[in-house]
Amino acid sequence: MKKIEFDVELHTAELYRFTMRHTYYSFSGIFSILFSLVCLVIAIIKWSTMQPMTIGALLVIASLFTIVQPVMLWAKCRMQMKQNKNINTKLHYIVEEDGITVQQNDQEAVVKWYEVQKAVKTKKAIYLYMSVVRAFIFPVEQCNGQFEALLQMITQQMEKYKDYDYEEETEESPEEDFSEDITGHRKFFAGRYLCIWC
User: Among 61, 195, 69, which Cα is nearest to 132's?
Assistant: First the structure.
């Protein structure tokens, strides 16, 4: 059975890139950017005809989502890195056909592929979402030179389980209480499933 192993130790920049993508690639994020640009365009076009106070208000609104929020997100990421020991601690990942095993000190959690709701590839990382607010972050430079193999494995398994019916599986196998096991693991690893400002 093919197995890919690597260690991940998140840094502020990696957490910030993930948070920025999560924030600005959503509908609300795209809307906020467009709204800021509209305010900026109006301020420029009406610069000579509007009152200074109105122009100032438009510029402030334009900067909220393009300057202020990114700076605040960076500060929040730095604070989270300093305060959350789970994020600061190195994790060992074992990615194989059965699922993803996460090891931290003497603790271990297993995430099955049918739990992964979405996979996102960027130039710097792969993000595996278990929910809207929880994800694994696999930075390219920390994949032990196995990034392409990891990407192929994720693509194959996501395709394999895209139509998987978890409820049907649990009904057929009542002796395997996946939900209780998963809940326990998620509670312990909440910091590195990455709870985003929850």
Answer: 195
Whether residue 123 contacts residue 141, with contact meaning beta carbons closer than 8 Å, is answered with: no
What average pLDDT does this structure show over 32-39?
92
Listed in sequence order, the residues at least 6 apart from 43 whose beta carbon sits closer than 8 Å to its beta carbon are: 50, 55, 58, 59, 62
pLDDT over 70 at 192, yes or no: no
pTM score, whole prediction: 0.73
Is residue 113 scored above 90 in pLDDT?
yes
Whole-number Å distance between alpha carbons of 128 and 154: 9
φ, ψ at 55 (rounded to 5°): -60, -45
131-159 b/e with 16+ CB inside 10 Å = b? eeebbbbbbbebbeeebeebbebbeebbe
- Give yes or no for a contact between 24 and 30, defined as CB atoms under 8 angstroms apart: yes
Q: How many CB atoms lie within 10 A of CB 87?
A: 21
SS3 6: strand
Q: Give all strands of the β-sheet with 134-139 in edge-to-edge order.
A: 118-121, 125-131, 134-139
The answer on pLDDT for 174 being more than 90 is no
- What CA–CA distances, in Å, run from 101 to 7, 9, 110, 127, 139? 12, 16, 4, 16, 17
List the one residue out of 156, 120, 117, 163 whose CA is nearest residue 138: 120
Chain centroid, CA 197 distance in Å: 11
What percent of the chain has pLDDT above 90?
51
